[in-house]
Amino acid sequence: MSDQTTDNAVSVKNIYKNYGEIEALRDLSLDFPNGQLTSLLGPSGCGKTTLLKIIAGLLPATQGEVFVNGSLVTKPGPDRAFVFQDFALMPWASVLRNVAFGLELRGVNKNEREDIAAKYIKDVGLVGFENSFPHELSGGMRQRVGLARALSVDSPVLLMDEPFSAVDEQTRRKFQEDLLNLVKNENKTFIFVTHSIEEAVYVSDQIAILLPRPSRVSEIIKPKGFRNKDVDSIRKDREYLDTVESIWKSLRTYVE
Amino acid sequence: MYLFGYKLPGMSSLILWGLLWEFLGQIEVSFFLPPLSAIFNTLLEIYNSKAFVRALYETGYSFLAGIFFAVFIGIPTGILMGKNRFLDELLLPWVNVFMSAPLTALVPVLMVLFGFGLKSIIITTTLFAIWIIILNSRAGVMQINRSLVDMANSFGASPIDAFIKIYFWAALPEILGGVRIGFIRAVKGVIIAQLLISIVGFGALFELYSSRFLMTHFWAVILVLFALAFTLSELLGMLARRVDYYASKRSQ
User: Fold this and answer.
1) Which residue from A47, A160, A169, A240 could staple onto A215, CB 3.0 to 4.6 Å apart?
2) B37-248: CATH homologous superfamily?
3) What is the pTM of this model?
4) Cross-chain Cβ contact B147/A88 below 8 Å
5) Residue of chain A with shortest Cα separation from B252
6) Which letter does DSSP use for residue B56 in this model?
């Protein structure tokens, strides 16, 4: 724990994860710098989501340690919030209750938590839908609810498991732009799982490429040049295009 | 149902069957089948007689008590079995055995264990209803969306919170389906118990009327019982439909 630096919000140290005979993660170590967005990118079956769930405390590692701001992770905690691929909204509860649910479980009283939830519902652009139910919303709107729920508990670390993979392409682009603004404005550390190379390069300060069987970090890429450009010109940027191309070259051998 | 292209109101087929019954009764096909109108006349005569009201009260009391235990023991047991592998393997064989066992054959054993009174009747009613409630609650929990559980855990839900706020609600459509079938089975259970254990309630009326060949009386009581069971089942069905919208959308 002594080598834990304050620059890293999350540190993963020598993680092993076995499912019976199957070795899902082998000796994986990775640091996640404070206030930045790190993507876990790789082909399916490379253990991205497994790693994210270990960081979340939802899965125990077979061996190895995870530190969040210097303290060892043994179970889920208020220092991390999770955004789910399939949104994980309660279909029997209104948008307002869904967004406030994290606070509800933490024992915040009803008035206070609904005030906080209302603020984040406004931030994600769902004003007017407070009393709607998830089945009345589109996929994109549902993920906004999931995002608002994760933001409303105000955790320093946000864990996102392929959050945009279940929404349509246009919505997805809008989400990616919003995410860049979120990283800029909220002083939070984002860990973002994706299988889309373009998405990873577009939103990340740091990209960790994971390779499968058994999973390990093969490369860490830190795009520099286009990070401060405005959202519209990134996709035209030379470095952006080159990075996408080089990642594809290193991954293509793993795709049959 | 449609007739010549017109939509008929729900359950209008019953009118047709009622007319057939009346006709068969009028031509005196069998002594055991009096005309429907005669049965309704008898019903009007007896429905506020002391014996009928008392039977209704006795049966209703045993039924509600039996259902109460079946619901409040059955639902939590089913949810826990769905959540916990160990508990499931421990209890599932028994639940399946009792689910398919001829419970009527067990009634004499219950009489030995719990006596000839109300207690045995209530226990019999519970035994008829509880297994399907357990199995359905269990099935409801087992198909729960994993990420809802992960979600609750990631926000630090205690086991009690997860049980009440996630598992129960996520399984509610199946639970209500089980309760509905349980209610119908409990109607069967309470009458069988009243016939076999101690001759009280509607069971006693059946016994009395059939042994004296009072067929219109006999059918009148049966019709009341059918109507009660049907109404209960429809009410629960309405309740179940109110939560159906999320049963089908649950995966997303």
Assistant:
1) A47
2) MetI-like (1.10.3720.10)
3) 0.80
4) yes
5) A86
6) H
